[in-house]
Amino acid sequence: MSVGVVWFIGVSAILFGIGLTGVLMRRSPLLILLSVELMLNACNLSLVAFSRNLGQQDGQVFALVVMAIAASEVVVGLGLVVAMARRHAELDVDNLINLRH
Amino acid sequence: MTYEIVFAAAAALAIVSGLGVVLSGNPFRSALWLILNLVSLATFYLLLQSDFLAAAQVIVYAGAVMIMFLFVIAYLGGAGDEPSRDLPLWQFGASLVAGIALVAEVIIAIVSESFPGAPDVGPNFGSAQAVAGPLFSTYLLAFEVASVVLLAAAVGGVVLGAVRPSPRAPGEREPFPERVREAPLPELQTLVMGRETHIEVHHTGGEEDDS
Amino acid sequence: MQTLSVICLFLPLAGTAVLALANTRISRPAAAWLGTAVAFVSFLAAVAVFFQILSEGESQRTHVFHLYTWAASPSFTVPFTLQIDTLSVTEMLIVSGVGSLIVMYSVGYLHGDPKERRFFAYIDLFLFSMLLLVMAGDFVLLLAGWGLVGLSSYLLIGFWHERPEPVEAAKKAFVMNAVGDVGIAIAIFFMVRDIGTTNYGQVFAQAPDVWAKGSADANWVALLLLLGAVAKSAQIPLHTWLPDAMEGPTPVSALIHAATMVTAGVYLVARAHPLFENAPNVMATTALLGVATLLMAGVIAIVQTDIKRIIAYSTMSQIGYMFTAVGIGAYSAGMFHLLTHAFFKALLFLGAGIVIHALADEQDVRKMGGLAAALPRTKVLMWIGTIALIGFWPTSKDQIMASAMEVGSTTAWIVWVGGLIGALLTGIYATRLMRLVFYGEQSEFVKEHLHEGHGEAPWVMFWPVAALAAGTILTGFLSIGFGAPNYIADFLSSSIPNVESTAAQDVLTTLIAWALGAAGGLAVWRLYGTPGAVPKLRARFAPVAIAAEHKFYWDELYTLIAYRPAQFVAVTLDKVVERWIIQGSITALTLTVRDAARGLADAQSGIVRQYAAVFAFGVVIVGAYLLTKANL
Prior knowledge:
The complex is a heterotrimer of chains A (about 100), B (about 210) and C (about 625).
Chain A: H1 5-25, H2 29-54, H3 58-86
Chain B: H1 2-23, H2 27-47, H3 51-76, H4 89-112, H5 128-136, H6 140-161, H7 188-193
Chain C: H1 2-22, H2 28-54, E1 63-72, E2 77-84, H3 86-109, H4 116-135, H5 139-157, H6 164-194, H7 200-210, H8 216-233, H9 241-244, H10 250-259, H11 264-271, H12 273-277, H13 280-303, H14 307-327, H15 331-358, H16 376-390, H17 396-407, H18 410-438, H19 444-449, H20 459-475, H21 487-492, H22 503-529, H23 533-540, H24 542-549, H25 554-601, H26 608-629
Antiparallel strand pairs in C: 1-2
Helix pairs in contact in C: 1-2, 1-4, 2-3, 2-4, 3-4, 3-10, 3-15, 3-20, 4-5, 5-6, 6-8, 8-11, 8-13, 10-15, 11-14, 13-14, 13-18, 14-15, 14-17, 14-18, 15-16, 15-17, 15-20, 16-18, 16-20, 17-18, 17-22, 18-22
């Protein structure tokens, strides 16, 4: 690869930052989930980049497993969103404070 | 040369689509931006000679997960939109600060570090076989655990999606739990010390048992 | 004799213990009679000891029984020692004899009271304490008995504790007695420091050597003992508790505050006479205090309206006579008056109790009158007591004054004059009491309420009073005066000295005293027989009358100089130290913890985005820290 690994990591960092900002800024659980996906993918990118940099496939295996876990997480998350919607709750994360002291 | 151009293009696409996910007003649009982002990442993977992963990314992520998202967004319709209240400025600022700070830290970290050059690898570097090797030997446990997690997620999805018949008139709301009200604390002093003591003549009243 | 003394002393204590433990398991009459029986058996033991003493020769009449060692340290031991000699056996007889009669009377007086059993437990406790006091052979043991009688007095004054007045009176009595207790304790410290023991025999033997006569130390020891005696015997200046103590039941007033406890001060001075003779100034002080008290109390008694308080001030006055006696060295004369006074004062109190009972617990003499027909036997008995009080028979009071003539010092002449004026005052108030209660027209109150009361006394109340009357008359024969043999002084001579007056002095003094007493009595009789005479007389002497009715403002004085400062200190301590500092600091601590906890709890807002933000910022900060640590 003729582009240094630093560039890949840089892109990954930027994507991660964008995703983080999205998580903190948004109030709809759906959009938060999307932002989390973004963050996860950014991590995947850096994993694969380092994997190539080291010449081993370990990073790719890691990224594969991350993909699987991300998929499970999305399933559960969307299940929650659908359950909330079915109960006619306003999909606003700021209202869901039952874990308050 | 082509490599760099493709990289630049993919990078630009990734960043723009990332911004699109976060800044878009419409969840549907956000999902579509995310798909674009995933595709750009797949390009990255190809640039990194991880073809199996690129394929998996497109098929699984972009093809399955995002479709799931789109289904739910379509089902929710307007309910999936961002709630209408505005974000206070300080929260907006804080989020930005957090994101930018993190990015800055990572960039500083990697820039000051010198990474060794990438070794030359054969054409089978990112093939399915190559990935499967470590996956099924060194990282077998991770593989198995991931399977269990997927199973759990599947079960969870079914449970969460189950419709419970409720003895309620159609159209009537199931009550959503109220906020827990804060219970007032009694006057702490009375709680700890009991009633106040007074200096006064103590008149014993009442009968004691005969003596 | 040791066994008998121990029985006499400890049987009442056993009675108290049994009554306290049995509590409601025995019936009230059973408890009452048990308490009485114990007192009577104790008296029989005392009588046996008396006869044993009588049968001995004069020089052998002092016995010291060492029962066991209470406290022992290398330099100082406190043995539990009884000293049985003529003085202590006389006191034993008085305490247990008059005591058992009064306890028997209480069976009737307290009948039906819901707390009857407790009363008898307390009374037996008192008998034990008083016997311990007079049988002690050691100053520390004396102080133990001293404190215990103070306790018993407190418990019995405040017996009806549902009302606030008895509670206040009990506290007042106890606190004032405590002042006296301190005096005795400090005197004991002197003894321990300078003599090394508090045993009577050794202290009295060594005192003149260790403390020179009239020296500061000698004066201090005697003065401190006098302080204790003054507090216990209700002499000026520690006398204000005695009238208030009348809140207790009448038998208590009779036993404790007339016959026995209040005379403990006189006993102390007589017992410790070597120490007092070592400090002549203090003896003079004692005599002068006695004179002042007997005069003041006599004046106050004239204007009192509560039948028990008249008798209480009379007690105070008569004890003043006893103090003058021991103050001039006539110890046996003082003890003789103590003996006769025990009988006739108890008689007067118990008789007053019968009157009170008959009028359904009314004690105001202004509401009485004309009871002679309704209570004839009581009237007769009380006249016997009144005659004794004024000094016609027995002549113990007159003999004190005659002894003063014999002593002849300035102090003694003051005693003589004061005593005679006191005889006049005694005649006045004693006759006034009888006149107001028994004679004249039956008042409206009497007509209404007489039938509500218990009528003239039941036998269990009457016969003790009759016995006391008989005792009053009989004790007079122990020393008739006018040169006749003085049996009591002879008997007591092995323990305490006396000043014998000549026959001539006796005759002179006694006749003057009788004349003055009779004059006072007759004047009162005529005065009350003439309608309107008394208010006119009062108006003429209004300032004196008002001062007397206010008991010469002693209570107000003590409230000002003692009670108010103490109350101020207590209130300030409570407001500042207790509430502010102690409680306040604890409260501040708890409030601080609570507020801190609340503040921390706000972090658990339940808002997911807040948690995420905290998370993110945490990562940023840790990352920044790591970056600074890395070698960039």
